[in-house]
Amino acid sequence: MAATEIISAFSYACDTISAKLSRGERVLLQDVSFSLSSGERLAVIGETGSGKTMLALSILGLLPANVRMQGGCIQMDGTALPTGKQLQTLRGDKLVYIPQNGAEFLLPARTVRKQLYDSLKKLSLPQKEFPQLAAEKLRLAGFDRPEDVLDKYSFQLSGGMAQRVTIALAACSRARLLIADEPTNGLDEAGRAQFFALLDSIFPDAAKLIITHDISVAARCDRVLVLCGGQMLETGTSAAVLSAPRHPYTKALLAAQVANGMQPSPILREGVSGCPFYARCPEADAGCLNGAMQKHTVGMSEWWCCHA
Fold this sequence. Notes:
The chain is of the alpha/beta class. The protein has helices at residues 52-60, 84-90, 102-105, 112-121, 130-140, 159-171, 189-202, 215-218, 238-243, 248-255, and strands at 10-20, 25-36, 41-45, 67-76, 79-80, 95-98, 177-181, 207-211, 223-228, 231-237, 294-298, 301-305. It has 10 helices and 12 strands. The longest helix is centred in the middle third of the chain and has 14 residues, at 189-202. The radius of gyration is 21 Å and the shape is globular. The protein has one domain (7-94, 174-305): P-loop containing nucleotide triphosphate hydrolases (Rossmann fold, 3-Layer(aba) Sandwich). It starts with 9 loop residues before the first strand and ends with a strand.
């Protein structure tokens, strides 16, 4: 390896993810790739059904039984992620997931204490240290009195408390990649700021993949990747993409925000195009019909469109 070669903390390249159905197959994700450096935040944005969840599940090795990934490579620190039981040992340790709904994620039959101890076991630490470490992780996640939480079950926690417990569980790790799925759903601006402050203080060196539909959350990330119909249509620094979007789909996403008047993106036409946004795109022309998307690059933004 050359001395100047830089290995990303995490890199993802997927040719195709498809679901086997009773009649044929359906492509869910296609030609998606990105890399992340240590400590960097990447926001993945797009409508419901755009492929965000499938991307996360493919990394975690938790795709549904009828869904498979064909081609591509997922690497952490320059080494391909393993599969099967070897990947299972990485989940909750170097590969960490923070869910959208903490209350649903926590095991209802086990106390917070027992779930924290389960996570600490993966670190091969002396069991006598578990009580102190469990309390410490809860304090890191924002609990001033962890003793009031340790012996509670998930149904005894508020939504905000359950979310902080999932962060404490994630803190029982040596995370290299952190995946957060709609982590600030239902939080106000102050809550969103507090959440990201916690992530940065607890996981300063972990690459962070933030799945969100909230543009204000994406703006807090270093870079943005825009998905539509399972395809990446635009990517770049959050400042460049969100202030000067290039692809019509990204423009429509931003225009649909409450702050921008919630402008609709109606279905305008029929036809088959290489662009998944063709049917609703106000900028589509005859060249888009049956056309192939081309990659365009300007400054810190890249986008894929049938025309410039």
